[in-house]
Amino acid sequence: MSSNQAPEPSFLAPRYWPTWMGMGLLKLICKLPYSWQITLGRWLGIVMYHLFASRRHITDVNLRLCFPELSDTERQAWVKQTFIHNAIGLFESSMSWWAPDSKLDMPITLKGEQHLKAALAQGRGVILLGGHFSTLDLGGRLFSRYFEADVMYRQHNNPLMDKMIREGRGNHLGTIERENLRQVLRALRKNRVVWYAPDQDFGPKYSVYAPFFGQDAATITATSRLVKLNNSPILMFSQHRNPDNKGYELEFFPIIEDFPSGDEMADASRINAEIERAIRKDPCQYMWVHRRFKTHPKGKNYLYRKTD
């Protein structure tokens, strides 16, 4: 090890014990039948809805901003459903990391496959635009049955959690840390698919305020730069759990033409519109528990401040 390299943390330290226990419990649950995990996820989501008041408030604010047409009763029902879908997604993530293929034999509907094939035919790699759906990790595992891809990710603050997630995803997809643009360029030059989700609030530094469900949302401008790396085509990919909880739909949207345009605001708006269109297929399967609008001209978390 060079003197400049940080030492490997000791994952036996007491501060990692809760992570070991939590991930160990998920591994045990992963051995249960799929239908049991869906049922457990539903009940866990209801419990989380009642216990986590701050996340419930964040979800409520997000849905009130993005779907003002909902009545209070309708919105609260969506808030609860969001918690249920995200809890099921927790178990789906563990399945994506550790379950054998034999446990993932549920029906899969592939839509718009021709759009990704057309993008790959250009030979310049593909930027696959994604969103933080509750089915994110399992969607990646199911995607890997049909195509190879590298997924861009942000390092987790917990090094042990980061290691487990990276290794779990790495069993079926390549992984690229989001700041490693050289590795992204190498992948694109090999005509690989690079899966990238820019739908979170990363602060104002490299963002513009672009519309998202009619709200000004801090949206990173890096998407345009990623496409420019190798002049690669870009298209939206979404994944949803079927309403009967007995299968999944993976959908590829048409290539986004004339992108980037040279106008950062216009480009960010187009990206948000693609993600919004995918979310509207089943809004409660999106991760509304995140503070999508935390960056605001009137101060951080302005929209999430509680008023008496």
Automatic annotation (TrEMBL):
| EC number(s) given by UniProt | 2.3.1.241
Q: Which GO terms describe its biological process?
A: Kdo2-lipid A biosynthetic process; lipid A biosynthetic process; lipopolysaccharide biosynthetic process
Subcellular locations according to the entry: Cell inner membrane
Q: Report a single Gene Ontology molecular function.
A: Kdo2-lipid IVA acyltransferase activity
On the tree of life, the source organism's domain of life is Bacteria
Pfam families per UniProt? Lip_A_acyltrans
User: Could you tell me which CDD domains the record lists for this protein?
Assistant: LPLAT_LABLAT-like
User: Which reaction is recorded as catalysed by this protein?
Assistant: an alpha-Kdo-(2->4)-alpha-Kdo-(2->6)-lipid IVA + a fatty acyl-[ACP] = an alpha-Kdo-(2->4)-alpha-Kdo-(2->6)-(acyl)-lipid IVA + holo-[ACP]
Q: Which InterPro entries match?
A: LipA_acyltrans, Lipid_A_LpxL_LpxP
The keyword Transmembrane helix appears for this protein? yes
The motif HXXXXD motif: which residues?
A: 132-137
Key words of the record: Acyltransferase, Cell inner membrane, Cell membrane, Lipopolysaccharide biosynthesis, Membrane, Transferase, Transmembrane, Transmembrane helix
Indicate how the chain sits in the lipid bilayer. Single-pass membrane protein
Please state the protein's primary subcellular location.
membrane
NCBIfam families, alphabetized: lipid_A_htrB (TIGR02207)
Function, as annotated, reads: Catalyzes the transfer of an acyl chain from an acyl-[acyl-carrier-protein] (ACP) to a Kdo(2)-lipid IV(A) to form a Kdo(2)-(acyl)-lipid IV(A).
- Tell me its family: Belongs to the LpxL/LpxM/LpxP family.
**Name recorded for this polypeptide:** Lipid A biosynthesis acyltransferase
State the species of origin: Neptunomonas marina
Print the organism lineage. Answer: Bacteria, Pseudomonadati, Pseudomonadota, Gammaproteobacteria, Oceanospirillales
